[in-house]
């Protein structure tokens, strides 16, 4: 287990692809009295480097630093607000481009949130028609998992979104234990609505989470995908399956 930072804070990086329960997980952690959160802090740096056209692109780039080095310092070194001892960071794996350095990761504790890529692609393409393998981040997620595992000498914690929805208390208890922080009942329910900590992209993506007061039931299996999207999901499955074998189970 990685040690706490010099200031005593526990900094947790949760690595997910899009269209998982990553925002609900952020809600769960933010509802703890000891925790502050960051919502996709490398998003603007990713957009600036790639030039990719995402919804509210200009607003995202105006809301965050576009230099990844500045972001890395913020998430790994900046002091937390008074009273906070845990810093939970919601990261999208596809934001970590090859030119972004990763040494800042070494002082954090890491976990990996996975979802069947067939379900990811089905959900993603409801919001954005273009969908390539790189867009859903599963290959990069496996690479980051390997980096953390190599450094620790053991697999870091992995949770599957469907497992969490099936038994939130059990899975979050396992996750907290694996990360070396106490579980809190406050993680199981939260007030509905938007948060100041939400990214400026929330109005486009977060409607379901804003209406929620806790984890919902598992969704139905993904429908059959059109051929061009099915190819993306099939290419992602081996990476997902490898991480799935390491998932936490009560």
UniProtKB/TrEMBL annotation:
Protein origin, superkingdom: Bacteria
Xref: InterPro entries: Class-IV_PLP-Dep_Aminotrnsfr, P-loop_NTPase
A Gene Ontology BP annotation from the UniProt entry: branched-chain amino acid biosynthetic process
Acetylation as UniProt keyword: no
Coiled coil: none
Keyword terms, alphabetized: Amino-acid biosynthesis, Branched-chain amino acid biosynthesis
Keyword check for Amino-acid biosynthesis: yes
Family: Belongs to the class-IV pyridoxal-phosphate-dependent aminotransferase family.
Protein name in the entry: Branched-chain amino acid aminotransferase
Source species: Caenispirillum bisanense
């Amino acid at each position: 287990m990685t040690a706490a930072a010099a200031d005593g804070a526990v900094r947790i990086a949760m690595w997910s692809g899009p269209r998982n329960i990553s925002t609900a997980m952020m809600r769960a952690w933010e509802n703890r009295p000891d925790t502050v959160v960051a919502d996709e802090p490398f998003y603007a740096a990713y957009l600036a480097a790639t030039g990719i056209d995402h919804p509210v692109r200009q607003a995202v780039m105006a809301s965050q630093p576009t230099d990844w080095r500045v972001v890395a310092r913020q998430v790994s070194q900046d002091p937390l607000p008074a009273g906070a001892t845990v810093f939970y960071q919601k990261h999208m794996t596809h934001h970590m481009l090859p030119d972004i350095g990763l040494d800042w990761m070494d002082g954090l504790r890491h976990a990996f949130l996975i979802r069947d890529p067939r379900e990811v692609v089905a959900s993603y393409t409801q919001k954005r028609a273009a969908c390539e393998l790189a867009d859903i981040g599963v290959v990069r997620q496996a690479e980051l998992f390997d980096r953390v595992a190599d450094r620790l000498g053991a697999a870091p914690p992995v949770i599957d979104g469907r497992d969490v929805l099936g038994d939130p208390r059990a899975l979050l208890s396992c996750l907290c234990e694996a990360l070396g922080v106490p579980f809190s009942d406050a993680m199981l329910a939260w007030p509905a609505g938007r948060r100041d900590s939400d990214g400026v992209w929330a109005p486009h993506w977060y409607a379901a989470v804003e209406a929620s007061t806790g984890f919902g039931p598992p969704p139905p299996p993904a429908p059959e995908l059109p051929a061009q999207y099915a190819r993306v999901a099939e290419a992602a499955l081996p990476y997902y399956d490898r991480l799935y074998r390491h998932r936490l189970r009560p």
